[in-house]
Amino acid sequence: MGVTQIGFAAGTSVPKRVLLFGLMAGAGILGGLNWNMDLTNWAYGGFLQSFLDPTAQIANLGVGLLLAFLIGFIHITTPCYLPAAVAALPLVQAAKHKRDWFKIALVLTAAMIVVTALFGAIVGAAGGAAAGLGASARPMALVMKPVLIGMGMLMVLAALGEFGLVPRLFPELHPAQRQAGASAEPVRGSVYRRAAGFGALIAATFGIICTAPPYLALVAYVAVVGSVLYGAVALGVYGIGMALPIALGGVGLLPAGRSTRLTGWLATNRETIRLAQGVLLTFLGTLTVAFFWVRYAVPPS
């Protein structure tokens, strides 16, 4: 589908979307170039002390797992994950009662755990290969600077998709209106395949690509531990935390067709919501790239 065929909010033509993207990118770049370095250095020093010091409380692996779950649970409140999580609502409509939704949510959760655990194993292996990663600020900065630049660029790419200028990265919201006899039909295997594919997709994109400080702290901690097994377990627990708000939200939306009404409202306002998401992601992504590319300096040895 060509760019000119992509529907968007009324009166928002392609040139206007390009202009808005350019304005927000410029604002993000200016924000990144003028970001307070003292604040960043203070936060970075606190980050190292809290998460990389072997004597810190988080050095307890059990505490790390608990934090991984909590970070995953609150991830739904971030701009990285909330838009993708909203796209799960059509799966709620496919369930005729709570038992069906429970099965769908289990499949969704399992798919997310597989992806996040695999990512955790990769991070743990990379950390193990770089022994002494947390010994000083320089080795960590050498790793985190390109990672954050890359994540910022991915957020900008996602923003372009929300503006309708490139293919969209977020799962599309396709509300499925219930038919009169839909409640008499069982949930078929195709719904479970959709749930598995959706779970894997959102976990592989905005589940593990984000610049939120708590999430970055978790990834850095897993790298410092340097264990493939612990990395898989910790990020797998993080995946459970990410899936739980969707599962609980689905239970709350099942009675009295609330999911249908909410999904209908989201579909009606879909283009406006996408525009707002594009604005936010553009600003955050360009700010991150500009700061870490231009201003952030790797500490000397």
Secondary-structure topology with pairs:
Elements: H1 14-33, H2 37-51, H3 61-74, H4 82-86, H5 89-93, H6 98-129, H7 137-162, H8 189-204, H9 213-225, H10 228-253, H11 258-268, H12 270-295
Helix pairs in contact: 1-12, 3-9, 3-10, 6-8, 6-9, 6-10, 7-12, 9-10
What is the H/E string? HHHHHHHHHHHH
State the helicity in percent bands.
55-70%
Number of helices: 12
Supply the number of structural domains: 1
Radius of gyration: 21 Å
Describe the structure.
This protein has one domain. The chain is built from twelve helices and no strands. It has 301 residues and is mostly helical. α3 packs antiparallel against α9 and α3 runs parallel beside α10. The longest helix is centred in the middle third of the chain and has 32 residues.
List keywords for this structure.
301 residues; mainly alpha; 0% strand; disordered N terminus
Question: What's this, in brief?
Answer:
The chain contains twelve helices and no strands.
